[in-house]
Design a protein that fits this description.
heterodimer, A: about 210 residues, flat, B: about 250 residues, alpha/beta, 4-stranded antiparallel sheet, binds adenosine-5'-triphosphate, binds magnesium ion
């Protein structure tokens, strides 16, 4: 064992971790609101809208993330006839994929608030959108916090999939250094500790929310 | 003769084959207090929900201040004119009492926060819970919660107030304080449509009683006539059962 290889490459590894965290953050910030819209669409009385949103959710939940990524990385440029930036295809693929999962969590949360609160909001002259925005979603989000936190951990773990197209997140960075230094044990151990630290912190937060609820 | 503030015209509503409302007609004139009673499942709540367009119905029409609910393009605006109080209060648990009351005035009516709070405090004072304004609903007693819900509806300054069994989820010792608020409202001339089984309240405050059964209005009379001698056997039976329980 030679842990020097880790300390020698520490700044590089940290940059990889930073990229992973940043990607996860961007994906969460973009896919959560889209998930909210999809949830509202699924609960809509307009049949076609609810069907379109349900189709979207089912399609994405029935496909592996890698495939969605390949789709945006290889297929979409061919279809639209011009190349897309690597980072952009990663972000679009992840956002689309995880929006489906956030959508399902939000839908369950919204349904847990119940129609009587919706009726109270509507009968006071608020529009349906305002009722959602000011009455239903705040309560739904409160009850969804544990599930949302867990989903954020899943997004963070999911960023490793970007490895396959050579995106410089922690997994890719680690494997490159491991290859160059021929020290896979030390380097992958370090990566494991780094992933564990972030995910475990997340699960502590999730448990904290569960206790509050 | 002014037009009724709410005119219900031959409303029929089916829930997938089950007839919840079967040709209901009722006029609510300005300043009148109408109590609706009837056995569980007779369609009382459904009727109130039709009035403010929360429940789509298949035929007939409801006019609120002359505007047809079924053809109305701006239901939120129509609903501003119709205050609604629910059996289970339906305060928003994530907002303070004051924010519960100011939400719709600000977002639906476009009042500034200052204006909305001023009005809110006025009505919270009127229902006697101004001192609870900054608490969350869960910290209030049932009676206080229902009074907050009444203040929330009043702050929109509706033309008519609808109550759906406002006291039936309350402990007996809290019923009185809510009924007192409603009595005061009636005295100040509010037009009221009240679903309740509080016959003492009906006798004292209402000027008309509507008795519903199986989605129909089977009896509609003045208060004294109703209590003296219900015309239908069904209403008599119901009244006996209610009055015996009290
Ligand atoms: N969304 C719905 N779908 C199907 N049936 C419904 C629905 N809402 C109400 N009903 C039915 O319509 C009938 C009338 O219900 P409603 O709630 O208006 O009665 P109610 O007179 O208010 O009774 P209660 O005194 O129990 O409140 C009931 O038989 C009820 O089961
Ligand atoms: Mg009812």
């Amino acid at each position: 064992m030679d842990w020097n290889v880790v300390s020698a490459n520490f700044p590089l590894l940290m940059r990889g971790l930073g990229t992973s965290l940043q990607l996860a953050a961007v994906v969460i910030v973009l896919s959560f609101p889209i998930g909210c819209l999809i949830a509202i669409g699924r609960l809509s009385r307009r049949r076609w809208l609810s069907a379109v949103c349900a189709g979207f959710v089912h399609t994405l939940r029935s496909n592996p993330l890698v495939l969605i990524l390949f789709w945006f990385y290889f297929s979409v440029p061919l279809i639209i006839g011009r190349s897309i930036d690597d980072g952009a295809s990663v972000i679009v693929a992840f956002v689309v994929f995880f929006a489906a999962y956030f959508g399902e969590i939000v839908r369950a949360g919204v349904q847990s608030v119940g129609t009587r609160q919706v009726q109270a909001g509507l009968s006071s002259g608020l529009s349906y959108a305002q009722t959602m925005r000011y009455i239903v979603l705040p309560q739904a989000i409160r009850s969804m916090r544990p599930a949302l936190t867990t989903q954020c951990i899943v997004v963070f773990q999911g960023t490793t999939v970007a490895y396959v197209i050579g995106y410089h997140e922690l997994m890719h960075t680690t494997s490159m250094i491991a290859e160059r230094t021929v020290r896979p044990v030390e380097l992958y151990s370090f990566a494991a500790v780094a992933y564990f630290a972030v995910c475990y912190a997340g699960s502590l937060l999730s448990r904290h929310f569960e206790k509050q609820a | 003769m002014t037009q009724p503030i709410v005119a219900i015209r031959n409303v029929c509503l089916d829930y997938g084959g089950f007839r919840a409302l079967d040709g209901v007609s009722l006029d609510v004139n300005v300043g009148s207090r109408i109590v609706i009673c009837g056995p569980s499942g007779s369609g009382k709540s459904t009727l109130l929900r039709c009035v403010n367009g929360l429940e789509p119905f298949q035929s007939g029409e409801v006019f609120v201040d002359g505007v047809g609910v079924r053809t109305c393009k701006d239901l939120p605006k129509l609903r501003l004119g119709v205050g609604m109080v629910f059996q289970h209060f339906e305060l928003y648990p994530h907002l303070s009492v004051l924010d519960n009351v100011t939400l719709a005035p600000m977002k639906a009516k476009g009042l500034s926060r200052r204006e909305a709070e001023e009005k809110a405090r006025h009505y919270l004072d009127r229902v006697g819970i101004l001192d609870q304004a900054d608490k969350f609903p869960a910290r209030l007693s049932g009676g206080q919660q229902q009074r907050a819900a009444i203040a929330r509806a009043l702050t929109l300054e509706p033309k008519v107030m609808m109550f759906d069994e406002p006291t039936s989820a309350l402990d007996p010792e809290m019923i009185g304080e809510v009924l007192k608020v409603m009595r005061d409202l009636a005295r100040d001339g509010m037009t009221m449509l009240v679903v309740t089984h509080e016959m003492g309240f009906a006798r004292e405050v209402a000027d008309e009683i509507v008795f519903m059964d199986k989605g129909r209005i089977v009896e509609h009379s003045g208060v004294s006539a109703f209590f003296a001698a219900p015309k239908t056997a069904r209403a008599r039976e119901f009244l006996d059962r209610i009055l015996l329980k009290i």
